[in-house]
Structure formats: C-alpha cells, structure tokens
Amino acid sequence: MKIIAAKKILKANDQIAENNRRRLSQNGVFTVNMLGSPGAGKTTLLEALLPLLKSRLSAAVIEGDIATSNDAERIEAIGIPSVQLNTDGACHLDANIVGLALDSLDLGNYGMIIVENVGNLICTAGFDLGEHIRVVVLSATEGADKVEKYPAMFQNAHALVINKTDLYPHIDFDPGRVMSDAKRIAPEVRIFQASARSGDGIAVLGEWLLDKRERWLQGIEK
Amino acid sequence: MKIIAAKKILKANDQIAENNRRRLSQNGVFTVNMLGSPGAGKTTLLEALLPLLKSRLSAAVIEGDIATSNDAERIEAIGIPSVQLNTDGACHLDANIVGLALDSLDLGNYGMIIVENVGNLICTAGFDLGEHIRVVVLSATEGADKVEKYPAMFQNAHALVINKTDLYPHIDFDPGRVMSDAKRIAPEVRIFQASARSGDGIAVLGEWLLDKRERWLQGIEK
Hints:
The structure is a homodimer of 222-residue chains.
Chain A: H1 2-26, E1 30-36, H2 42-54, E2 59-65, H3 70-77, E3 82-86, H4 95-103, E4 112-116, E5 133-139, H5 146-149, H6 151-155, E6 159-163, H7 175-185, E7 190-193, H8 202-217
Helix pairs in contact in A: 1-4, 2-8
C-alpha cells in the first residue's frame, strides 16, 4: 500500500509539473532546475552567473530550502527577484510548491527562471518541477566517486557543473573519473568545470544556458 | 492518510531500533551512527580513525549507500570487517535494514560498530537505527551556514566533526559560526575540528569515542 501511495504522489506530481511547464512555455520562460548536495556551491554559482545573464535577459530565482531565507536574501542582494520556498522538513521541492512560487511571479516579465532545489543528492532527482532542463552542481571537494554512488541524480541531467575548480591544487580529485562516469550514465550531458569563487568557467556556462534557451525558443530543442 | 502512514513507519522503526539497541547493549557493542552530506568525508574519516581504534578494541563498520560497495571495500582494505547495505534508492538507512546487518555479524566479537549512513543532510536525521550516539560530519567546504539551514541533522548529534580543516587556508569558512549555531541547537554537542586527509584532530576524536564507550560500559552515561 505504501508503494501505491508513493506512485500516486509521483503521478500527481507529474501532472502538476506538466501544468507548470505549459505555463512557463506559454510565457517564454526558460526554466532550469538546479540540483546538488548541500554546500555544492549552488547559491554562490548563481551569484556569479546571474550578473552575466542580467545584461541579456530578465531572470528570477526560486530558492528551495528546509529552513531560513538566507539564499533568497543573497539573490535579492545582487538585484535579482527571488522567491524563497521553505519545505518544512521535506527533502526536495515538488511541482506543487513550485507552482505556488510561479503564482507569485508575473511570468510575462522573465526570460529565465532558475529553481535552486533543496541540497540533496538523492530525493530531488525523483521530482519533475516542470523545468525545461536540469543542471546538477557537484563540488570537486565531494570526491570523484559521486556519479557512481548517486546515479539517479545524474542520469537525467542536461548539464553537470563540476564546481570549486580553484581547489584542484589542494585536493585529491580526478575530474576524468567524474566525466567518464557521467557520460556513461547520461551520454548527452554537457560537462562544465567552474569555480563560482574565482569566476573561472562561469561565462562559458552562461553562454551555454543562453544558447539552450535560444534553441528552445526557436523550437530546435524541446 | 499519508501523514498517518508516515507516523506508523516511524513508530515501527522506533520499535525495531529499540530492539537493535538492546541486542547491541547486551553484547557490549558501543554503536555510532555517523551522518553527513555526500562527500563530507565520512569514509575517509573512518580510514583515518579505525587504525587508531584497532589497537584498543575490535571494531566493525556497516556501510549504507544507494549503490556500489565501494565504501565497504575501502574499509575491508584497512583490515576492518564491514557490511555493505544498499538501500536501492532510499535516502536513508532504517532500523530494519541495520538489523539485517547485525544478523550477519557475530556481535560478541566487537567492542564498537560504526554505521556510516547514506550521504544525506536531511532524511537520515529522522531514523533511529538503534545507535548509542550520533556523530555528524560536516565538511568545511560545505560552508558555515549548514547548521542553520539543516537544523534537524544537528539537534540530536552527540558530536559534530568539522572535517577538511587542511583546506581552511583556501576557502572562506567561519568555524566560529558553525560552532555557535551548533551549540545553540544542541548545547551538549561536542565539536571537533579535524582533517581525515592530514590526520589532524583524528586522535582526539578517537580518544573521545573510546572514553564515551568506557563511560557507557560503566553505566555512567546511557
């Protein structure tokens, strides 16, 4: 019975996610679900990335956290509108709560929305939020075995950002292992190496996102 | 109905956890539930810690992962018996699966068992496994906001290990913030700063664990 209930929840989530995606698409809002472990550097990456995107389109951020509004405050501080979702203990965002965030935004105003999911390398993978693409952020300090150990997170990723490259000289980390594991699980995944702290690789990621959005708008990619 | 089901699962888990704890206590096996994010350095910490414990008592490790037996293999490689539990997608260990691991060990042979939980800063906090103490490992590279953002993980911790101190010179991290946040949420928590990679702080942690076990054996602490 528990399994049936879980399936029902996922099915209901999928229906609401489709509804979110339709609303976003109708408004031309390219939407990114950004996922990763606690401390992978997702918010810091947004702080580095959004100033670059800002000159090219109007962006908003939806922040998912168990507690606090720290992350939304950090995004507001760089002049980007944000909505903070608190899950009250839940380990992932779902399409329903993201739908509530969309209700609070005037979607016609935005060209891109980035949803920063709850810090979790497991639970968030199972929930479609209605996004157009998924970007997984993995910190180099988490170690090179993470794709192999948490495969579900990586198999539906459109992009994988290996973050904190500025720490490469100080840690034992084999980016080649992460890249080959990721390509095996998700052959189409685009892999970036970046440092949100130093800015290294951020412009390349930003251009890729803008290009992805352009191809989506033109109907070249779904 | 969903909420009731969840409560039933937690209640069933608590009963099995009490049973595990009784079995462990009757055999004099002091048991540690080690928790933390993916890549916090839990396995590397065990690789540094267990050789120190080995000369003082006989230890075993139960490894919890979604996939692979990598971690149990690493523990076996340093000569410590280990059991690998694969959760098949579940984001945490529970008392039932840990009970199965206990069935496979001759408990009379061990003075200490360390259970390395699935890498997750959220879900694992809600499940008593039958342990005597909880040790949370937080990597300094995860950032100083983690106690505030994931409070449930820290509030029942007996010890907090801030790991990867060797990277302090290369990151922006305020250990004072973590310590004051942790003390506010869990006033009795013992906080360690350590580097599993350099060995810094590992002996102090090992002595504390041995002392904790001694006091537990003597009935000074539960």
